[in-house]
Amino acid sequence: METAIAALFFAISVLGLLQYHQRLQQAFVHQWQQRQAWHLAYQQLAIYAAGRGGETLTLLERGLSPGWQLDLTEQFQTAACLRVSSTVTTPQHYQAHL
Questions:
Q1: Which of 52, 71, 80, 93 has its CA 20 to 30 Å from the CA of residue 26?
Q2: How crowded is residue 70: how many other Cβ atoms within 10 Å of its Cβ?
């Protein structure tokens, strides 16, 4: 009887640890995607600033996994001011906007 109770407690604690590990792994993936999104948004603007605006999306999209979205927009604020925005969306729908 004591062995059965000990095995039950052991099984419950192992299940708790497995759930904790799964949540921790999901958090690491989410954090990695956030960092990657900010890096890609910066890269988009850097390539655009280097004078290769038309090639920006094609250069970066080649190495992306499915589910990632890149968007580069140009908008004139005044005749002399151009606003360039870079938005990256991760597979988990996190957005980095520069």
A1: 71
A2: 19
